[in-house]
Write a structure and sequence with these properties.
Order of helices and strands: HEHEHEHEEHEHEEEEE
Strand content: 15-25%
Structural class: alpha+beta
Strand order of the largest sheet: 2-3-6-4-5
Radius of gyration: 21 Å
Oligomer: single chain
Shape: globular
Number of strands: 11
Number of helices: 6
């Protein structure tokens, strides 16, 4: 079932307020549940940075951290070589219930990562102050200190790392986040976490056609303040597009047309 809205002479806020009012009414009448409005809004780049997904489930934490800068000149070639190829390195620190994760489960998570296109999944387990991991011996003391500060590493934590293209890193870690959230019952199933994702890129580069194509559709309007960079930096132009997300599922979306 789909509800289409065609509206004239409106801006993004007009559309969002209309949709929020509709959803609030539906939940009240169908389930007797009071939904709080306005819904949270998050920029696309923030969603991708923290959750690796443009439809993040906000019912639990486990945010991703970009640690690319720490490993730019690292002696651990798996990470530094990925960065030299234009990739990134991200980490996820499992704090809650990390001690319950067995070595077999860690290996299974590595296989899960491979099924999504990864070459593997690096990890570090901190036990009694010791960094236990096949990669620990490759890390400099300065890198460990930076990681400890950025990731708030404490005794008992398990940290997972991915180094690859931004697409692969985000795909793998966003799905790993959901898998761990489900495994350790971190997701509040009674909660309805609504979110507007905004400021999507207008264009994305098609590697097959070697040209920029519309991320949403060709009739989506660019943000007026980005028009001046259209010729020189098309990849930085943002769209007047928006998606509404509920518990990690995109339930609607649209745009202001050209």
């Amino acid at each position: 079932t789909q509800i289409d809205l065609e509206m004239s002479f409106v801006n993004e806020s007009d559309v969002m307020e209309t949709v929020e009012g509709m959803i609030k009414s539906i939940f009240k009448q169908a389930k007797g549940i009071e939904i709080e409005t306005p819904f949270m809004r998050m920029r696309y780049d923030e969603a991708m940075l923290k959750y690796g997904s443009d439809k993040p489930d906000l019912r639990f934490g486990l945010e991703l951290q970009d640690v690319t800068e720490i490993f730019k000149n690292s002696g651990f070639k798996v990470f530094s070589d990925a960065i030299k190829r234009g990739g990134i390195v991200k980490a996820l620190n499992l704090k809650e219930s990390a001690s319950e994760l067995s070595r077999k489960e860690i290996d299974d998570l590595g296989e899960f990562a491979k099924s999504l296109g990864a070459k593997g999944l690096a990890w570090i387990k901190v036990s009694e102050g010791e960094w236990q991991s096949p990669i620990a011996k490759f890390l400099r003391k300065s890198e460990k200190e930076e990681l400890k500060n950025v990731l708030n590493i404490e005794n008992g934590d398990i940290i997972f790392f991915m180094a690859d293209s931004a697409y692969t890193v985000n795909l793998v870690l966003s799905n790993l986040r959901l898998r761990l959230g489900d495994r350790f019952n971190l997701i509040d199933k009674s909660k309805f976490a609504f979110l507007w994702v905004v400021d999507f890129p207008l264009l994305e580069f098609d590697e097959t056609e070697k040209r920029y194509v519309a991320m949403h559709h060709p009739f989506t309007s660019p943000k007026e303040e980005d028009l001046e960079i259209f010729d020189n930096a098309p990849e930085k132009v943002r769209a007047r597009a928006y998606d509404i997300v509920l518990n990690g599922v995109e339930i609607g979306g649209g745009s202001i047309r050209i």
